[in-house]
Design brief:
With 425 residues, the protein is of the alpha/beta class. The chain has helices at residues 3-6, 8-20, 63-66, 75-85, 96-108, 121-136, 161-165, 190-200, 223-235, 256-259, 286-289, 308-323, 327-348, 369-381, 402-417; strands at residues 42-46, 49-52, 57-60, 114-118, 140-144, 182-185, 204-209, 239-243, 266-270, 280-284, 353-358, 361-366, 384-385, 394-395. The strands form three sheets. It has a seven-stranded mixed sheet, with helices on both faces. Strands 1-2-3-13 form a four-stranded mixed sheet. A three-stranded antiparallel sheet has the order 11-12-14. A hairpin with a 4-residue loop joins strand 2 and strand 3.
């Protein structure tokens, strides 16, 4: 079977998708614009594997951009969702599952005394910013260059992620007036941060930070800088908003910042806490959270927030993560094994490849963007599915096995062997 025939069903479906979906996708990075060619269209997944419409199997490291920490279709999560389906899809009213998931998160992250569930990471950050502004009665916010906090207008300035992938400095449709209160600083630059606060401190409502960056490749945490950031915000009565949409429950059963002894005022969560279904959440002290309506005057609402199906998926997922917490270290070691092996191969063969890793997250960066495209396509042919951009992170899940890692190392080395310069005799 030739390549054209092999891709026929995927190609036909993508052709149809482009008739009805903008670019054939519902999120830009899925278009494979960074790596070129048609995207892989995925039909199903089980554990650490995903499958396209031709039946090809891939070891999955995109992991739905970090959400699937248990892998695809974990039986206990499937059963929890199935049980809820027979009881109702949504109520628009408070129900027991919301309370249970909130209680579970509070037990894991005590700083979240109260929580509000929403439907996406974007909603969680957008709402947290509104709450911070309402609580402090200030307008300005600080974010760090190349950090992505969702697609709210005022957060898209120098935002990394899909914007960086598409080489878009600022989305069209965002008036400059909308970002006039957004101040941008280089991550790790304490001097610049102090300068910003010296000039605008009385007007800064909050600083938003990803403790571990996942939207400009993997950006390693600077613990001393994060501690300095906490001191600066406290000094100026500004709130520290931790964007843990990616990192919440990724490295341990709880938030990343709590593991390094830093208390954020508001913590935003998403991805993992919904078991792979659409979710977001933000929480903090009762004093701050009670500024939300109906207790206070900061308004935020949603028809679908706290959806019982999503809540049940989240409850089941967090229960498993708590019971199998030892697996966090196992996947950290798997990621280290994989990244170290590939890095050593690249160095030994003169391939200019940088792998950035923090625990179970990693990303690739070639000196030449064209090499990433070749690498990515070749890896797909070898049955390994990575995030389709150098600016996106890759993730290990509890479903990955030592056999997956061994096979991935062999496949990726085979892919990289095409880049090795042969000496001419």
């Amino acid at each position: 079977m030739n390549k054209k025939e092999y891709y026929s069903e995927n190609s036909q479906l993508f052709k149809e998708a482009k008739q009805f979906l903008v670019g054939g996708v519902n999120s830009p990075v899925r278009s494979f614009s960074y790596v070129g060619g048609e995207p892989v269209l995925l039909k199903q997944g089980h554990g650490s594997k995903i499958y396209d419409y031709e039946g090809r199997e891939f070891i999955d490291y995109c992991s739905s951009f970090g959400a699937m920490i248990l892998g695809q279709a974990r039986p206990e999560v499937v059963e929890a969702v199935r049980n809820q389906l027979t009881k109702g899809f949504g109520f628009g009213a408070t129900h027991q599952s919301e309370v249970e998931l909130a209680r579970t998160i509070n037990a894991a992250i005590p700083a979240i005394e109260k929580i509000r569930f929403v439907n996406s990471g974007t909603e969680s950050l957008m709402s947290a910013v509104r709450l911070a502004r309402g609580y402090t009665q200030r307008d300005k916010i600080v974010k760090f260059k190349n950090s992505y906090h969702g697609h709210a207008d005022y957060l898209l300035a120098e935002a990394g992620s899909g914007l960086a992938t598409g080489q878009i400095p600022l989305s069209k449709g965002v008036p400059l007036e909308f970002i006039k209160h957004t101040l941008i600083v280089d991550y790790g630059d304490t001097e610049a941060l102090n300068s910003i606060f010296k000039q605008y401190g009385k007007s800064i409502a909050a600083v938003l930070v990803e403790p571990v960056g996942g939207n400009y490749g993997v950006t390693l945490p600077d613990i001393e800088f994060l501690k300095a950031l906490r001191l600066i915000t406290e000094k100026h009565d500004s709130l520290l908003v931790a964007d843990e949409v990616i990192t919440g429950f990724r490295f341990n059963f709880g938030s990343f910042l709590q593991t390094v002894g830093i208390n954020a005022d508001l913590i935003c969560l998403g991805k993992i806490i919904g078991g792979g279904l659409p979710i977001g959440a933000y929480g903090g002290s009762s004093k701050i959270m009670n500024c939300l309506a109906p207790q206070g005057e900061v308004y935020q609402a949603s028809t679908f927030s706290g959806n019982p199906i999503v809540m049940q998926a989240g409850i089941a997922t967090l229960r498993i993560l708590n019971q199998e917490a030892k697996n966090y270290e196992i996947i950290n070691q798997f990621a280290k094994q994989f990244c170290d092996s590939i890095s050593k191969y690249a160095v030994a063969n003169g391939i200019d490849l940088k792998i950035s890793r923090y625990r179970s997250m990693f990303s690739f960066k070639f000196s030449d963007r064209a090499l990433f495209s070749l690498f990515y396509r070749s890896a797909l042919e070898q049955g390994v599915y990575f995030a389709p951009s150098e600016y996106e992170a890759n993730f290990l899940s509890f479903a990955h096995s030592s056999a997956d890692i061994a096979k991935s190392i062999i496949s990726v080395k085979k892919t990289l062997s095409c880049f090795v310069k042969k000496e001419v005799s």
